Amino acid sequence: MIRECERVAHLLVQSILAGHHPRGARLPSEHALSERFGVSRAVVREAIAHLKAEGVVMARQGSGTYVIDRPGRKGFHLKNVEEVSILEELRHILELRKVFETGVAELAAVRRTEADLHHLEAVVLAMDRWAQQAAHSPTEETTGAQWDDEFHLALARATHNPEVERFQEYLGVKNTAVHRVLWGDEGRVRGWPVVANAEHREILEAVRAGDPAAARRAAERHLEGTADRVSEVLCPAGETPEEPSSLEPIDG
Questions:
Q1: How many CA atoms lie within 13 A of 121 on its CB side?
Q2: Phi and psi angles of residue 218, each rounded to the nearest 5 degrees, phi first
Q3: What is the pLDDT of residues 101-136, one digit of tens each?
Q4: Which residues are paired to 29 by β-bridges?
Q5: In the beta sheet, which residues pair with residue 58?
Q6: Closest alpha carbon to 201 in 97, 142, 121
Q7: Number of H helices, E strands in the chain
Q8: Which residue from 61, 68, 65, 93 is spatially nearest to 173, judged by alpha carbons?
Q9: How far apart are CA 216 and CA 240, in angstroms?
């Protein structure tokens, strides 16, 4: 079944292709779109995030979201994690994240500002509060996955390179299925939100210290931990994976 955000993204693409929102045009507000498509504003935000990640629209602070290109013109496309059926392919996606996001952390440690640090700290604290609340009762408000996305996006913003930020947003959109597992009911039972946010804290402290090497190492540990957690979901105890799911060297 197609997820609501994917349906809305598809409808927006069709509207853009039909010329209802030409290049340079501002999209209707989240409220207007949620009314038009009969969905929540959270669904609209996720749908727009898909289009931003594909380079179709961009947000201008204080102004709105604008069409910047026709859909389908971008050459690079990464499969959604839910589309990946072979463990080796999933391992390749996680390796891509490791290569990219460790570099993001390293660069953020060099370029971060006090404002960047304040925002990162606020996200980590918000995620801590969410984890404590979710441990006792599930919440329908901002999810742990959304806070996780915001942490990594805030880290990308701290590089002060807009293309780094855009690609990080693209990775976040493509990782939603894994997020739902790791930050959903199963993840909460296993205590993964607390573990993952402790890893986020290590990255933040290295960035705060202005230590790029330490930031890279902390990000590497976090991505390897993520790979291990994904492997635990996809290959439960007693099952032998055909391909290694952790980020390991390849012999030969």
A1: 11
A2: -65, -40
A3: 999 999 999 999 999 999 999 999 998 888 777 666
A4: none
A5: 66
A6: 121
A7: 11, 2
A8: 93
A9: 31
